[in-house]
Amino acid sequence: MTKRRQFLKGVAALSSLSLTSCGWRLAQVRANSSTYSRSDQLYIYTWTQYTDKQLLQTFSTQTGMKVLADVYDSNDVMLAKLQAGGGSAYSIIYPSDYMVQKMADKDLLTEINRDRLIGIENLFPRFSNPIYDPNNRYSIPFNWGTTGFIYNSEKLKDPPQDWDYLWQNQDKLNKRITLLNDVREVMGAVLRMLGYSYNSKNELEIKQAYDKLRELKPAIASFDTDAWQNQILGGDLILAMCYSADAVKISKENPKFKYVIPRSGSSLWTDTIVIPKTAPNLAGAYAWINMILQPEVAAEISQRLNIATPNKAGFEQLPKRIQNNSNLFPPESLLTNCERISPVGEFEEIYERYWTQLTSG
């Protein structure tokens, strides 16, 4: 998989994002940084869509630290790199909720010292003690959302309502659809369509999902998490399985693209911020987390990146049109059938085996 690195340096002038008004100063970490690390660099490993140049520049200017961001397009790619020893430079990583549990179980994460956090009380109650990480022991929520379809409403007059739409319209969609490059999301969606759990530990059920996907595979252009965006805007695709945050961004660029949460249910996810055990710049890591926790910052990021902030104080600063955007902040009625992806222990190998068979060749 092709990787790209963004090397982002601090700029002389402050960006429009003001942090000094938050009641604290990022620059204060410089005086204490030698206690934990003498590094003047902060390496971040994150999702492509979270590389926010303006935020990185502000942090660099305020702290004097150069920020370098590597990107990945799946949790499994990120975990594999860490386990292979390729993640020792990173002080901040952005895993999804179920991956936090896996990483903690593998002893890859630093337990967060809540005494060093500023603004943890700003979170919505549902994110203050999440099931995937009780009491936010290892992670801080950054963004949350759902998984569903984005489609071209000019090409598909009858909008997709559920996952089975793909099979029912396979000829019409032939080579003009993509699914995510994520085994648990894709297999989970089909499991849900079949009436099972995203987190099934029944190999017969998993095989049924695999068999359904084998039927659909000839119509699938690719398994992709990022590149579909340019393809659907360019007209090569008419439907893509995607995360709600990406769908909101695309719909903003062109309103003919609509987002749908499948009625049989979808995944409810949270992307988080964690500190790996090998973090070389612990002071910088806490400074980064504390910046993200500030209401003004959370609101700015939500608007600029089109993401759903878990920060209640930040949410309250958003314009009403964003607060009322049901793609970003779905009502409870739409979330009833949604399910969080959880680790499945030894069944991970079964999922991976079928996924390899599906995606290879």
General shape:
globular
* Radius of gyration over C-alpha positions, nearest whole angstrom: 20 Å
Structural class, judged by helices and strands? alpha/beta
Task: Give the ordered list of helices and strands.
Answer: EHEHEHEHEHHEHHEHEHEEHHHHHH
Low-confidence segments: 1-25, 27-38
What average pLDDT do the residues reach? 88
Strand content: 15-25%
Please provide the count of β strands: 10
The separation of the N and C termini measures 16 Å
Helical segment count: 16
Helix percent band: 25-40%
Largest sheet: 6 strands, mixed
Identify the notable features of this structure and list them briefly.
signal; globular; transport; 361 residues; 4-stranded mixed β-sheet; polyamine binding; 6-stranded mixed β-sheet; alpha/beta; Sperm_putr-bd
General description of the model:
This protein is α/β, with parallel strands linked by helices and 361 residues long. The protein is built from 16 helices and ten strands. The chain has helices spanning 29-32, 53-63, 75-83, 97-105, 165-168, 170-173, 183-193, 203-216, 228-233, 244-253, 282-293, 295-305, 312-315, 320-323, 332-335, 347-359; strands at 5-8, 41-47, 66-72, 90-93, 139-152, 177-179, 220-223, 239-243, 257-260, 268-274. The strands form two sheets. Strands 5, 6, 7, 8, 9 and 10 form a six-stranded mixed β-sheet that branches. Strand 2, helix 2 and strand 3 (66-72) form a beta-alpha-beta unit. Helix 7 (183-193) crosses helix 8 and helix 8 (203-216) runs parallel beside helix 16 (347-359). The chain is globular, with a radius of gyration of 20 Å.
